[in-house]
Amino acid sequence: MSNLPATSQELALRIRQTALTMCYQKKASHLGGAFSAADMLAVLYHEVMAARPAEPRWAERDRLYYSKGHACTALYAVLAERGYFPRADLDTFTDDGSLLTSHVNHKVAGVELSTGSLGHALSVACGVALAGLRQRKTWHSYVIVSDGELDEGSNWEAILFAPHHRLDNLTLVVDYNKIQSFGSTAEVLNLDPLADKFKAFGWDTIEVDGHNHAALAAALAKRGRTPGRPRAVIAHTIKGKGVDFMEGQLAWHYKSPNQDQYQQAMAQLQVQA
Description:
273 residues; alpha/beta; 5-stranded parallel beta sheet; 9 helices; globular; thiamine pyrophosphate; Transketolase; THDP-binding; Transketolase_N
């Protein structure tokens, strides 16, 4: 059963607490990227997306394609909070035979696409959005990509495709925390000026503080869109957001917290409640 928090801010905090516990208990990684995406997930599932957790395949649901499948703990956490599956199932994360695998698994209720092979989800979402547009459906497709995966050429094919086909039922959110697996995005393959690139490709482009819930809600809303143009939301975020010794640190792309780090991080998160 869902016991959804009263606000999206409270939901984001629960996402971080749950992701932290999952990574600690199972010695898993990608916590920094889960923390940077927590606020956008909270706003989508609390404020924006049409969904029926008791009917995960409801035909009129809005779709989320979570491309950064390595940061799966944040998505699993929000789905459990929304009631797609029991919170107790989170304890099986990465266990042999569990559906809650270390990269996002489409067999989990509420998950549209298995992800983790970076650069695939946006292309799939474009196809789904095009089908929805041609069938005159009212649902919307959302995609969350990591900034590092924009190094993949397949994304830029999709970024060309969406405006050409006037996919105004599609929203792309870039989790722009500016750190990828082996360095900063500026060092590995510089993306800037990122917003200008999307604008040049024909997207309705908005830059926001990716931890400001009001700004995210306004950018992600389905009303007030420019007809015929997909929307790109460049969400400036902080890797490891919410825990001071994780924020902006490359090590927390892969690192798993030890007991002391877990306790310190949880204490910081609890103070924010």
